[in-house]
Amino acid sequence: MVSSVIRCKVVKMNLIFKHKRPFLLPSTLFTCESLEKLWIRSSSVLYLPKSISFPRLKLLQLALVEFTDECLTEQLFSNCPVLEELIIRWCNWVNMKAVCMSAPALKCLIIDCIGDPLNINILHNCEVKIHAPSLVSLTYRDCIAKEFVFSSLSSLVDAKIDIDVGDNFPETRQEETEYCAAVTKFLRQIVNVKHLKISGNSLEVLSFAEDLLTDLLTFYNLIQLEVLSVVKYYAHKTLFPLIQMAPNLESVVFCKVFSPYLHDDGDGWLLDMDTVSESLFRNIKFVQFKEFFGTPGEMKLARVILNNASALQMMTITCTLSRDLSSKVVVMEELLRFPRGSPSCVIEFS
Q1: 274-279 contacts, C-beta under 8 A, 24 or more apart
Q2: Which PANTHER family does the UniProt entry name for this protein (predicted)?
Q3: Predicted pLDDT of residue 226
Q4: What residues does 98 pair with on adjacent strands?
């Protein structure tokens, strides 16, 4: 049936295989000259032919696919000369030591394996080499690979990073150091990014560093930083240094800073924020709290920013205490009493 569709010069193809048996697609699929978009979803081994060529393929999405041959897998990712978007979800690189991709026209790369239904440590033991000089957008949500090598990311604009330690959480100081070194090396290669989204889990891994300021490069192009998830109390060791390494940062977005359900949330922050450098938030113009519970840590962080951000134009706070109007009013009134380093700053509260 697939062969018949190919003969019709198909442009888009969506293949879903529900069985777990290894499958062999017709070799003509992998040399289809008309195909522009290809989706493959399965739960088994994908056997690749020796000859692979997608001259017009612009989008390739793979989900739950198992790869077993390093050379043929490299051919699949390297014989798509006009490929612009590559999405990889929950794929398994069986006993593979290296995953290589070369896509000169690639603009968007998504590797998203968090929440893997098969619970596989996808790239933990792999060396990943990617040549994508035109890449504009990168999403990486997985445990960190053994080593990441990007040939060039000078065009990178957006990056979303969520490092999941999962079952490989370091148990010794040496393991912590090695894992953190792999993550910092990864971040050093995306230093040209303009908009960075980073998870609380990623900041937790970076907290293993002895001195993050010496491990990271300066993010001169970074103008917006978004923290995607809860930042645990010790992550001030990473969040503040990361902001410090972005001298041109203009906007900071906190999706959820502290969990309202943890009794100790914010304790480490309360101590550390008393020694925050006055220059840390000096150039910040916009700050947004998307979920604000009014915890001591949140209030202290908001106060420190308001007091030190001399260029701040607006702080937007979405309070999640909507069912308790009186508590919401108390939080709002306290925020409005905080001293401000920028007289023209507006606080938008909802």
Answers
A1: 276/240, 276/304, 276/308, 277/244, 278/308, 279/308
A2: F-BOX/RNI SUPERFAMILY PROTEIN-RELATED (PTHR31900), SUPERFAMILY PROTEIN, PUTATIVE-RELATED (PTHR31900:SF30)
A3: 96
A4: 127
Q: Where are the domains of the chain?
A: 1-156
Residue 264: per-residue pLDDT: 46
Q: Work out the angle at residue 320's Cα, subtended by the Cα atoms of residues 315 and 325, and round it to the nearest 5 degrees.
A: 100
Cβ proximity of 53 and 31 under 8 Å: yes
| Cα radius of gyration (the chain) | 23
Spatial neighbors of 248 by CB under 8 A, at least 6 apart, are 220, 221, 222, 223, 283
Other beta carbons within 10 Å of 216: 20
Structure tokens at 67: 């790869």
Asked if 314 and 350 touch (Cβ cutoff 8 Å), the reply is: no
Show Cβ contacts of residue 103 under 8 Å, excluding neighbours closer than 6 positions.
Answer: 77, 78, 80, 83, 86, 131, 132
Average of pLDDT values for 314-329? 80
Q: What is the 3-state secondary structure (H, E, C) of the chain?
A: CHHHHHHCCCCEEEEECCCCCCEECCHHHHHCCCCCEEEEECCCEEECCCCCCCCCCCEEEEECCEECCHHHHHHHHHCCCCCCEEEEECCEECCCCEEEEECCCCCEEEEECCCCCCCCCCCCCCEEEEECCCCCEEEEEECCCCEEEECCCCCCCEEEEEECCHHHCCCCHHHHHHHHHHHHHHHHCCCCCCEEEECHHHHHHHCCCCCHHHHCCCCCCCCEEEECCCCCHHHHHHHHHHHHCCCCCCEEEECCCCCCCCCCCCHHHHHHHHHCCCCCCCCCCEEEEEEECCCHHHHHHHHHHHHHCCCCCEEEEEECCCCCHHHHHHHHHHHHHCCCCCCCCEEEEC
> pTM of the entire structure?
0.90
Q: What is the pLDDT of residue 286?
A: 97
Mean pLDDT along residues 60-66: 92
Task: Yes or no: say if 292 and 260 are a contact pair by the CB < 8 Å rule.
Answer: no
* 334 phi, psi to nearest 5 deg: -65, -40
